[in-house]
Design brief:
Strand content: 5-15%
Number of domains: 3
Helix content: 55-70%
Distance between the termini: 76 Å
Oligomer: single chain
Radius of gyration: 29 Å
Shape: elongated
Number of helices: 8
Order of helices and strands: HHHHHEEHHH
Length: 200
Amino acid sequence: MIEDLRTLAAWDTTKGKAQELIELATKESWDEAINQFNERYGEQAKSDPNDPNVFELKNLAGLQRIPSAQMDFITLRTANTPGATGFLRQLFVEQRFVSRLYSLIPAQSDALAEVPLVMEFKPDQSFYCLKSLSTRRPDTQQFQNAKPMLMVRTERVETHSLAAVHFNPSNILQRTRFEFARQPEPEAQEQTEEDQKDAT
């Protein structure tokens, strides 16, 4: 709980610093703004320029969304794999991040017009200062070329998903109406023996 309170206390401070970086980049340049930030707040930059906390401009290219059906398929395939929980959690966070970026771009546009922009992303407790954001939407010809591959992938995912349901142990028991044999109760067994004697 103490760690959570510290995170909440630092949240507004982090947002303010992100907005400060945006204002500096707007007035001057991104390189100059980042240099000033490292001078003001990046003490570690002076001793180790490769420190992961050093302010720098990163170019994230080739980010793609994974369809929900494929995410379900990955979850099923890794369900019993040791260490898969951490991998899946990170994968879902990354997909939420990519989806958040895509949601910022208008449907009829290929780029975000209002930049620079501060984007809040709570799953990894971060603020992102976006210099630019764009996407390349496929045209009709590209979509037609990719359609067969997408159909095969979709069928494969659906087949594996159905197999996981069909061969689920509880589903097998339900389909076959399987029941474990039970030992008769002592009283019932005595009653059965008496019925057999009466019958003879």
